[in-house]
Amino acid sequence: MQAFAYSNPASVADAARAGVIDGAKYIAGGQTLLSSMKLGLAAPDALIDLGAIAELQEISVSGGVVKIGAMATHAAVAAHAGVQQAIPALADLAGKIGDRQVRNRGTVGGSLANNDPAACYPAAALGLGATIHTDSRSIAADDFFTGMFSTALNEGEVITAVSFPVPEKAGWQKFKQPASRFSIVGVFVSKGPQGVRVAVTGAGAGVFRASALEAKLAADWSAAALAGATVSADGLNSDLHGSAEYRAALIPVLAGRAVN
Question: Which domains are delineated in the chain?
């Protein structure tokens, strides 16, 4: 691993100032960045550790919104009584990410900023119509995810929190790769302030909404409404874990289970 500078700012403002330095990268839980550095796939000149910024770890439930700080760990979200009561599907998703070590290191903001095409949190954000807050603006989930490992974040922009509107109903189902525990296909469904939403992760180059399934569930919120539904395999992933056609077939099946 190459040499790099390291800083541990105590505030978002300090982190933002450090982030404008060429070659600097923010580090949250380090689940992806550190591995990439060890493999020589990333070589930042400086790491800005967000772990000491207390405000980024806060979780609150108020006014029909669950707001989660960017540095809240998956384990903290899964164990939070307010999240469990307001959006049980979100707590369930957080509690099934990776293994115990990953859940105690990985963070909400880190997952969203990385936007791995098989990650769980992008499906929750898109499936609930969340808003991603940064040090300079707020971005709707529909506008945030722009492609594989790509987001609308500008260079040096810091995610500070994510606001999830509390839905009337929501569910999450994940068909996982047993070794990595990433999603071969994961589906998050919800019915609430943002309408009916069905978000899919693991199946394609990035998280996406399944509009045909949304239309069926908007007319009839039931697993039966998805009986016989199909999703096109065009553009979906095909690898040793499953073909594009296999993933396409899984999407409506998992969506029906999530509704149940």
Answer: 5-259 (3.30.465.10)
